[in-house]
């Protein structure tokens, strides 16, 4: 017994000592990671900024914590446009950085305008007289568009340039829903308001085809002009080449002949090319700076003069974080949270003007109105300028409309002034096919109308009253835009109807005031605030790594993954039904679909 107690005590002591040692190493590692993360990067002489075009590029970065790899949460591969542009500017201003090496070419962008803004920043970098070269095994279309700003474009001998034009096919689920016994009930205003069509039609409507052709054609025309200028070829010849050839399968020799790339190189040869540009010897090391390194390089911006707040609002507009989870998660614009933030900026005497950076295809009309009112409160006290990112459409335009001035990128998608409500009726499935029936008592005609909408046979009167509700919402939308833009509601209705506009076209119909960048919006805000000297501050502040660690949520579950694999193509429409059944925000101001490009 005495021997047993000794062994037990020894085991307990061993476990305690091991835990203490492990904890000590954890704390030491923690301190090291935090110190490393916060330390300023010292740029060595004759350095090159390596810009990896892989993963996804979004409005702002969604960085993880120092423990993501340790915890198995992995790297999202997401880069923020704000970080990229800031790093490119630092590289331009730093005399020790001689050039930028664009590596890889498979990045996905949240919108065509995001790719355009990155390219514009690289084009501005070249005004310093420094060089840019690009190399990839394969170039996706958007990445190639960005890379055409480079002095030289190199390619792996077995690589490809997947230049194909813009477009694609959408999925329509009505046939599936008919077989399941599900029918979507729609109340909407706006003949171009096509968001509902994937659930109610078997193909694209003429109105949707018209607007898509218009804005995709406009984006391609802009991209084509810039790519042709970058590669020093004629735009019409490049356009014909893309139309007549499947370039993804075209041999590298033909790509060189067509001037799409300059030369075929192996990895060690591109390394030698960069050494040559840096005037290094064969055995010299290349001083490289990654995006993470550049973020820790000290900026030359001085905090002089008045403060201009740049507030970022991007993602779907939702009533609450809970509603965002129903829509699949991701970054979102929570109505009350954003409105509260904007009110604080309105009351902050240190903030002399606000640039409201909007990148959203809309969402809840109620949340949109909440935010719009907060923008008006700012406007009553100080100038507010909207800078539109990839999209500022539907609810995204709603929240933008009260600003003193609206600046959009040339390829921003905007407008989509329209309203809809979309509710699935599952009576054909649950009653006719599964045999589930409903019965009960009520004191008034419309008690329990939610159940009637989704599972009842006779919903005409409820939908009639819902259509009236949507009609009032649309009229309110017209009034909101008319007030903000100095137009009559009748004029807004003519350019409304849910029609999506490219910003270059929206300029002529007074939906935007000027085509330009976020920098242009900041300069305009300073002008309106009569500031000779100014500096910017980004809002909302990025959470620290500890806050991210505490709030870290899993990106799905094993069961969800298994269901997705089992259902295949049926997963998304069935999840759409689930979300629509739980979504209490019946009035939606939302754009037609995702505009991500690769």
UniProtKB/TrEMBL annotation:
Is Membrane given among the entry's keywords?
Answer: yes
Q: Which domain of life is it from?
A: Bacteria
The active site lies at: 193 (proton donor/acceptor), 394 (nucleophile)
Q: Which residues cross the membrane?
A: 12-35
Offer a single GO CC term for the protein.
membrane
Give GO BP annotations, semicolon-separated: signal peptide processing
Positions of the Peptidase S49 domain: 125-278, 378-531
Q: Name one GO molecular function term.
A: serine-type peptidase activity
Chief place of localization: membrane
SUPFAM superfamilies the UniProt entry points to: ClpP/crotonase (SSF52096)
> Which UniProt keyword terms apply here?
Hydrolase, Membrane, Protease, Serine protease, Transmembrane, Transmembrane helix
Q: Where in the cell is it found?
A: Membrane
Give the InterPro entries listed for this entry. ClpP/crotonase-like_dom_sf (IPR029045), Pept_S49_pIV (IPR004634), Pept_S49_SppA (IPR004635), Peptidase_S49 (IPR002142), S49_SppA_67K_type_N (IPR047217), S49_SppA_C (IPR047272)
- Similarity annotation: Belongs to the peptidase S49 family.
The entry's protein name is Signal peptide peptidase SppA
Q: Which organism does this record belong to?
A: Xylanibacter ruminicola
Question: Lineage of this protein's species?
Answer: Bacteria, Pseudomonadati, Bacteroidota, Bacteroidia, Bacteroidales
């Amino acid at each position: 017994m005495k021997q047993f107690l000794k062994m037990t005590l020894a085991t307990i002591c061993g476990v305690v000592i091991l835990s203490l040692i492990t904890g000590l190493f954890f704390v030491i590692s923690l301190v090291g990671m935090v110190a490393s993360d916060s330390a300023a990067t010292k740029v060595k002489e004759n350095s090159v900024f390596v810009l990896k075009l892989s993963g996804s590029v979004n409005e702002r970065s969604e960085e993880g914590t120092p423990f993501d790899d340790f915890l198995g949460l992995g790297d999202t591969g997401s880069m923020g446009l704000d970080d990229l542009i800031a790093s490119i500017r630092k590289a331009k201003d730093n005399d020790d950085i001689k050039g930028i090496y664009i590596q890889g070419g498979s990045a996905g962008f949240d919108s065509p305008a995001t790719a355009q803004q990155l390219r514009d920043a690289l084009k501005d970098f070249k005004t310093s007289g420094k060089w840019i070269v690009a190399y990839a095994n394969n170039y996706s279309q958007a990445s190639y568009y960005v890379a055409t700003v480079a002095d030289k474009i190199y390619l792996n001998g077995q690589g490809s340039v997947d230049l194909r034009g813009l477009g694609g096919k959408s999925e329509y689920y009505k046939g599936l829903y008919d077989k399941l016994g599900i029918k979507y009930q729609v109340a909407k205003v706006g003949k171009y308001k096509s968001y509902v069509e994937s659930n109610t039609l078997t193909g694209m409507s003429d109105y949707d085809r018209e607007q898509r052709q218009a804005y995709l054609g406009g984006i391609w025309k802009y991209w084509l002009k810039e790519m042709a200028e970058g590669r020093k070829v004629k735009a019409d010849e490049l356009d014909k080449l893309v139309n007549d050839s499947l370039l993804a399968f075209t041999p590298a020799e033909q790509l060189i002949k067509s001037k799409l790339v300059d030369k075929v190189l192996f990895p060690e040869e591109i390394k030698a090319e960069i050494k040559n540009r840096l005037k290094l010897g064969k055995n010299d090391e290349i001083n490289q700076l990654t995006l993470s390194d550049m973020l820790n390089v000290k900026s030359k911006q001085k905090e002089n003069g008045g403060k201009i707040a740049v507030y970022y609002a991007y993602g779907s507009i939702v009533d609450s974080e809970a509603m965002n989870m129903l829509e699949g998660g991701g970054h979102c614009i929570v109505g009350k949270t954003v409105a509260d933030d904007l009110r604080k900026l309105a009351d902050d005497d240190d903030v002399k003007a606000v640039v409201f950076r909007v990148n959203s295809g809309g969402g809840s009309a109620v949340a949109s109105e909440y935010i719009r009112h907060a923008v008006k409160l700012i406007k009553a006290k100080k100038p507010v300028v909207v800078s539109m990112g990839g999209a500022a459409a539907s609810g995204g335009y709603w929240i933008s409309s009260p600003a003193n001035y609206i600046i959009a990128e040339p390829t921003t998608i905007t407008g989509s002034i329209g309203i809809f409500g979309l509710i699935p009726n599952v009576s054909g499935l649950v009653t006719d096919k599964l045999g589930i029936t409903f019965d009960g008592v009520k004191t008034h005609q419309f008690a329990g109308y939610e159940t009637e909408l989704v599972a009842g046979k006779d919903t005409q009167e409820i939908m009639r009253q819902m259509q009236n509700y949507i009609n009032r919402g649309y009229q309110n939308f017209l009034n909101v835009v008319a007030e903000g833009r100095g137009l009559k509601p009748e004029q807004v209705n003519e350019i409304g109807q849910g029609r999506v506009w490219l910003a270059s076209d929206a300029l002529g119909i007074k939906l935007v005031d000027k085509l330009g960048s976020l920098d242009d919006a900041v300069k305009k805000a300073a002008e309106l605030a009569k500031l000779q000297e100014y500096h910017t501050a980004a809002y909302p502040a990025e959470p620290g790594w500890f806050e991210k660690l505490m709030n870290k949520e899993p990106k799905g579950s094993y069961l969800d993954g298994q269901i997705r694999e089992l259902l295949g193509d049926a997963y998304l429409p069935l999840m759409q039904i689930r979300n629509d059944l739980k979504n209490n925000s019946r009035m939606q101001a939302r754009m037609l679909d995702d505009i991500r490009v690769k």
